[in-house]
Amino acid sequence: MNYNKKIIIALGIFFSTVLISMSIIHIALNFMYPGNQLAESIKENFKDSFGKSIKFDSMIFRYNGDIILHNFYLSNTTDFNDNVNLIKCSEVVIDTYLLDLLREKITFSAVIMYEPEINIIKNYGKSYSDTFITDIVAGFKNDKINQFITKRFSIVLTDSQLFYREIFKKSKTSVDFFDVDIDILYNGDELEYEIDGSIVNNNISRWRSCGFDVEGEVTFNEAKSRNRVKFSNIDISIVNNFLAEIYNDPVVLKGELSGDLSFNTDKENIDIRAEIDACDIYASGSDSSSGFFLKDESIKFEFDITALSTLERMKINKFKIDDDILAIELKSEYVKGEQLSLAIHSNKIDLSLLSGKFI
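-> structure tokens emitted (359 positions)
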């Protein structure tokens, strides 16, 4: 009986100590960050470190150091004047170090977003580099970032929706992604990333999956990267507006693409390898009355290309096209200032079968 009383007393002391400590921490934080000072400090740190403005409706502080932001908005720039939100999310968790907060220093170890909505818009006349690189990462300032993040800093987005809009002169392309998970780990001079999700494709049956999986790592001081992209049943017609923008008489495409592509680089070399399956491909001229010159075709592409980063030397180790009737394999090597070497090999062709593919 005495033993049980001792356990109860010990537990009571423990929980009382925890409650008192939490109360002291709460009072200390309110004293060090009166009013909206902590919220304003977070906004300033985001702008200084990432080159993006943020706003949110309310903030909750957890005693483990986590900061919860409700109705969070991340601008594409340092202000909200263009009324474009790169990200909006009902709840964001910022994982901070509690001891740093008590030293009046805000240090982020992770930013976690649940079910965010991501909007990427490429306006007419804007380059892809500006859209995907300059707008998103150019504001990052490594000297500032390292002051506000831990050595292993992560960004996690779960069950995201991503909407991509590309505006052309006479048309618009929309691609919708869902169930997108993004996991980024920044470790000083290295960055690792993994992104996967699904893509809306209204041209295929619902039971057929349409998605992607991207992973890789980048080492900044060595200018080295390893990247891999896997995708399945991607609607190829999303490129039609792009083709119509750059050609007077473009090809109109319909079908699905699946494949596996790896892209590796270092200071001197580029290495690209891929296997791509094009299924149920239809191709015609922009004038519908011209008929199809490819109809219900399935083609497999394989290629292995290495090159110097300066592109002064390029070697096609393998480039193969195979539609189960006609198979062509090409090998080539290009050296700047020298003649181009080229070797082409094909299998035997049954012309009666081949002719049916172009009717």
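Helices lie at 2-32, 37-50, 98-102, 128-137, 142-148, 240-246, 351-355.
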